[in-house]
Write the structure tokens for this entry.
Amino acid sequence: MSNRTRTLLYLRALIDADRTLDEPRLEPVRLHVRTAGSIPPKAVMAAAGYIVVVWTWRIKPEVTRTEIEQWELGHAAELNVAENAAQPMTGIGGAGITDAETGTVPSRPMLAYHGTVLARRSVFAPPGRTVQTLWGAWGEGRQWLEAVLSRAPDTIQPEWLQPIARTIVTLRSELMDGEPEVTVIDPSLPL
Amino acid sequence: MFCPTDRFERAAGVVLRPMPEWGRAYAYTPRRPALTELNTTTWLIATLCDGATLAELEEEFADAVRRVAGDNAARDTLHRGLAMLVEAGIIARTEDAAP
Amino acid sequence: MSTPGEVGGTPWMARPMKLTLCLTARCPLDCRACYADCGARPAADELDTATWLRLIDELAANGVINMFVEGGEPLARDDAEAILAHATARMFTTLRTHAVTIDDATAARLAGLGIGRVYVDLMGATAATHDAMVGVPGSLDAALAGIAALRRHGVPVSVLVILCRPNVAELPALARLAAAAGADEFGVLRLYPLGRARRAWSALALALDEQMAALAELAADLPAGLRLMQSWHPNDANCCWQNAAIDPYGHAIGCPYLRDYVDYGDLRTTPWLETWNHPLYRRLRAGAVDGHCRDCASSQLTRGGCRSTAYAFHGRWDAPDPFCVTMNKGTDLRVLPDRPV
């Protein structure tokens, strides 16, 4: 079997498995999706009632990774305000919590952006046009997160959340192809 | 705009590096030094371009994607992808060699 | 039977697609932070032209499509352009240089060879700092002239700086200088414990908070049109899974930053892909690192950060990278443990 035949068989199988024919795309290689922040350890998540919301979404064909990077920078900047400064995390009942790994009280913003990463087709590899955007929240941040992800910006209080919600609108309208698939990782479920 | 008798092949010097682990391929274009990532669709089109005519490409491409796209959608996708590959210098259009 | 993850690393990659070719340890400069320890070994020990050309053929045949050529000073070899020409015909080729010997004619030839991008190391924004760091008066002016020549011939240029104590105060000025010179990218690199930099560590190294403060100050006032590249969180991925490199003597070393620590095989006698399966190489690619930031969404699916610095500071391949704000855990980066290399 020639290399060409083998490649064509592979590509047919891949396209069949995806059940869709992607828009043709070429992209410079040097770009990388940038991410920011990190999710707390699972034990801390569970103690603090920390939720993680994951949007799995397709990038519009004409959108480049650079544009996603630029969006990320803007979104992260809107979250980086005094009202959302990192503070010692408290448990669901209001008591302080301690990170079992470090023995310290973790300090986090109540509303966090954890980054946008390439979603992977399989355990092996990142595909390209499907990405996952992750946010996390604890305490009052859970309501803030619900608001910025689902409501019209000018209807949201407190006001400092409105610029954040506007960046979410930008994400949905300018970068996203279709609707996101939403997954909520809730610490009350087994992690 | 392409003609059915146009032929398409890998541009001179272009190196195509399949990356099946990622479902991607990479093309190096030495005449305009750049490295470009091809998604599954452009990779498939580039692989089919071995001197075939546009009419042959349409047939082969439609056959390759028939489980996920009808003939019209396949043809439109092929033309868009081919235009991108030619523009990027990865695929070259050649004169029709047929008599 | 091995799983794909064990063979190819995490994330999985069956064969490397890019490689760093450390072409030489010759250099006209005398840098305080020289990683290659230029001049320490006789130039005659380095691979000859024919062997480099054969190796480039072997790399191309095995799927390498992106080559980063560095030194020493690659252009210090008489056969540098012949080797670069061989590479550019087969793979996207970029060059790291001090640029001090690049005049208009050299720049024209490099453009003609199809070099995709040139990375120029500047060690300070002023001649006083840069020239003192590289040990040769007039070097900053010569490097800027080299950058100007490259830009005249349309070669994209990135300016690199190794962030260290002598130049930390000049970082914003250096970014402005890079932009004014026509660079479209400014790469701020951390100091690596290699070669002469290792021996001069206490004079050169900054504490992590000093490094992060310098980066924050730079990011707040980055010149328009200049892209910032930096290797600290969240860009401190563990990239061993995809890296390959060859030292000037023909040894596979995985990454140029591992040059003092590993030897995966002598490519004069060992097929290159065989070295990809060296047990230590496979182990590092597997990305098993203790104390990494679990569930970190920033690491681009890799774990634990740079293996070179982790090993240098902790003496273990599975230790976390102390240049990460999360994984540092109190490690004073100004104090490099005295370990045998």
User: Anything to note?
Assistant: Strands of chain A lie at 26-28, 51-59, 87-88, 107-108, 111-118, 130-137, 176-185. The CA atoms of residues 12 and 18 of chain A lie 10 Å apart. The mean pLDDT of chain A is 79. Chain A has five helices and seven strands.
